[in-house]
Amino acid sequence: MGSDYSTFPTVSNYYTSMPTRSYNGSSKESCVRSFHTTYDWNKHLDNIKGSCQLMVIDFTASWCGPCKAIEPAFMELAAKFTDVIFVKIDVDELMSVAGEFGVEAMPTFCTDQTW
TM spans, by residue (predicted)? Predict the structure, then answer.
């Protein structure tokens, strides 16, 4: 069950170190982490196991208009709440991870503290 997003175009490293704008107009470096391989994603999960740190995951796609529209707010939240881990996962790059979370539409947001 789930959607096959393999027919849509992808953009490599789309979210890596993206600059963002805060509401007051100043430029900030993004606090959002992105993962482009399942190995890196699983390594990240292993590193935070038992930490009880809140993580917010944004499942997105480079071709998704609503994802692009919500991105500035997501980036601003990441800059504001530095004690929370903010993650973007492109469903075209990590289809297996999106499938594990039952993602069928974008954007989809997931949160949890019990990794």
Answer: none
